[in-house]
Design goal:
2 copies of one chain form a homodimer.
Chain A: E1 22-30, E2 33-40, E3 43-48, E4 57-60, E5 64-67, E6 70-75, H1 91-104, H2 108-124, E7 127-132, H3 137-147, E8 150-157, E9 159-161, E10 164-165, H4 167-180, E11 187-193, H5 201-214, E12 217-222, H6 226-236, H7 240-246, E13 254-258, H8 264-273, E14 276-279, H9 281-286, H10 294-300, E15 304-307, H11 320-335, H12 343-350, H13 352-357, E16 373-377, H14 389-395, E17 402-407, E18 410-413, H15 421-442
Parallel strand pairs in A: 1-4, 6-7, 7-8, 8-11, 11-12, 12-13, 13-14, 14-15
Antiparallel strand pairs in A: 1-2, 2-3, 5-16, 9-10, 16-17, 17-18
């Protein structure tokens, strides 16, 4: 089974003894100071100017900075298979003529290979967690378990008529339910109804109740397009946000993807219900959905905003580095003000804020926290000069600056090398060739 | 002298015999077909399914695609020294309190080291040419000659009162004039008056005459901010574009940086005069200058648009890859239409169009053209799957996908390695530390 060399053995979980090892990062830059960072098991144990221990693994941190990695608030990981498959097309032609026909041919095995490619790209760009919504998510769980990252995996719900969830969803979600007791602590399940225009109010109410009963998160697209808003007003006599509130879907464990078209009342509801907005500026610009009002919604009205990338069909990558820059710059452009959306604010929206929103005790490099981190190459031209680390990271860096990625105490990439990368890429390539061939021969 | 190992010997120019060598790239992907590409001297000589020659240098092109590299239409290269030095600040506070005090302390040697860092970054991100405007440009010329890229270097003009060009400009431009007969064919000089609010009409008229007499290009900032437009209307009774036209500054060899705030009449003038607009969306968003109307100005009204990055103080990198994505997505966002600014259009604006605008016989991979190229790693996760090469390049790639860079027949980066990189980075770091120290002690 792929992933063996990483410690993967008889099942889908890392061996327990692996996670009890110690890892020492020597002489790394942390908050403007050179530090030794000792990780025991899956947590930061000691951070000091010098740590004298005999660790199982040692990383030379000289010339590198340690930063919290990224937590991607909204994704459809396996859509990496569709990167570059259909661009520059109007939304509904894009869905009807390209995306949905493609998805009709996707198998569970395809989703596995697409998810592995996605996780590979995420590790390369410094991301250790993603909040996912897609088909065949058992295959995504398998990829997550094998490759050592974290994820929130959605039980997808779409209806073909009000009150009638697709049998496919029900079958897949039943599989997830059985699997849930076997998941590692890097994984959580969420309830992921697709949107208010594909899931009826009665079903949303039931989902809301189930999520509260199980104390799990809800993940749904909301207020992405003007068409959605118009539809909600026509059907329900209220905005999508007000409708979701009426259905009992909004609370501190709710993640709403997009939230572009908001009224002042919507913003007040989002703040009062303490929901998390997942903000994906690249996707919003590429699909011309509209411009999220970051400054107003977060900085003036105090809503919680976490950055995500959306899937590769509408981005077309999963780089949170690129997304941070896009988020900062589009916020300044939208508000016509250069002094909004500071680099540090945007960095928080990609690290500390989403980590907390998903209940992950990480997002800052501190003793006692879960040991998630990136080591950044400070001598890469994009990071030079070192006037301001966070500014360079948000406004200048790309994946070439990411040297090492650690998740839950385990090194997933060291010196820009990821185990099995060539095999994962080759399998994804072959998967796509076969998929496109199947689509062609069916036409 | 730095650069010796690259063939640099007694002066500022590559040795002539070096450029007569042959370079064979074997089995590389070109326009969906595997090809051998033979370069003789500084031009593509033979492109065929198989080229059987005994070349001086051979590159294995398997698993790679060959593409034209980037031509950056507007830059202030040495401002890499200011990357991350001052962000998220209102424009005039930014200039008065940070940028200008910094620049007051910059020496010619600093500009040399900043330019080398900039060129290093440009090579890493696939760029072989930049259109520059800055102080001490003799030092930038030195860096360009040594490192093997191309550039258009501006004779800078700024006035402290109407008709009175800064003595510093005159002295520096005199140096450039003496140097001009010694420049390699990778370099050209331009006339670069800073803007209409820093150079008077009488001087602009004289510069226009001189540029026409010498058949050289003009490079100026124009219509970047609403404040500039308001000032022009108040001072001259017309828009910045109309004023530049009145001063005889507009023609096919004029490059206008920004052009955000345009009237329909301005657009008609730009089209009729056949000028090139340099479009820098990252800088425009970061400084909240406004949103360039790409679809209207280029796709509907037929003006020529070339993409640039601006300097690192307002971007904060020189990646044309990132800038292409920003240009495509911001055009869709601004026009609220997903079907504008296709990937291929944007790619042309970063390659073929600027190459032609600057009189460089390159920008496409064809026999007889100047041998400028990038080799792209097709197995990098960001380039997988390979549904559509140009889409992946514009919407997904970052510098980690750039494997090899060739300019004027010479390999500047091979297998992601650039000669003297560590030395260049270290010198730039030291330069910045000294500069910041000088600024601190003077305060």
């Amino acid at each position: 089974m792929p992933g063996c060399r990483n410690g993967w053995r008889s099942g889908w979980r890392w061996e327990v003894e692996e996670s009890m090892k110690t890892l020492l990062i020597r002489q790394v830059l942390l908050n403007d100071t050179i530090r030794d960072v000792l990780i025991k098991g899956n947590r930061f144990a000691t951070i000091a100017s010098s740590v004298m221990v005999d660790a199982d693994q040692i990383i030379d941190g000289r010339g590198k900075a340690i930063l919290p990695p990224f937590y991607n608030a909204h994704n459809h990981a396996a859509m990496t298979l569709m990167r570059g498959y259909a661009d520059d097309i109007e939304l509904f032609a894009w869905l009807n003529q390209h995306i949905w026909p493609f998805e009709n041919h996707i198998t569970e095995e395809d989703v596995y290979h697409g998810s592995r490619l996605a996780i590979l790209e995420m590790i390369r760009t410094g991301t250790v967690f993603f909040n996912d919504m897609y088909w065949f998510s058992r295959a995504t769980i398998r990829a997550v378990e094998e490759m050592g990252v974290r994820a929130a995996i959605g039980r997808l719900f779409i209806e073909d008529r009000p009150g009638h969830i697709l049998p496919r969803n029900l079958a897949e979600n039943e599989v997830l339910e059985k699997l849930s007791v076997h998941l590692s602590d890097r994984l959580q399940l969420t309830f992921a109804p697709h949107a208010i225009y594909t899931v009826s109010g009665q079903t949303l109410c039931k989902i809301g109740e189930a999520a509260r009963a199980m104390d799990q998160r809800i993940h749904i697209h909301a207020a992405e397009t003007l068409r959605e808003v118009e539809h909600a007003v026509k059907e329900h006599g209220m905005t999508p946000i007000a409708w979701l509130d009426r259905c009992g879907m909004l609370g501190p464990k709710t993640i709403l993807a997009h939230c572009i078209h908001l009224t002042p009342d919507d913003i007040a509801i989002l703040r009062e219900r303490d929901v998390t907005i997942a903000h994906m500026p690249c996707s919003n610009f590429k699909l011309a959905s509209g411009q999220f009002r970051f400054h107003e919604v977060m900085e003036q009205q105090g809503c919680r905003v976490a950055i995500g990338t959306d899937g590769c069909a509408s981005n077309n990558n999963l780089s949170m580095l690129e997304e941070m820059k896009f988020a900062a710059l589009s916020a300044k452009g939208e508000s016509m003000c250069a002094t909004v959306a500071y680099a540090q604010t945007i960095f928080d929206c990609a690290t500390r804020i989403p980590a907390k929103a998903f209940g992950i005790d990480a997002g800052v490099i501190e003793e006692g926290r879960l040991a998630d981190a990136v080591l950044v190459d400070l001598s890469h031209p994009l990071m030079v000069p070192n006037h301001h680390l966070v500014s360079n990271w948000v406004y200048s860096a790309d994946s070439a600056c990411v040297d090492t990625v650690i998740c839950n105490g385990r090194v997933l990439m060291a010196n820009k090398k990821i185990p099995l990368e060539h095999e994962i890429v080759a399998a994804a390539q072959e998967t796509c060739i076969r998929l496109v061939e199947r689509i062609r021969t069916t036409k």
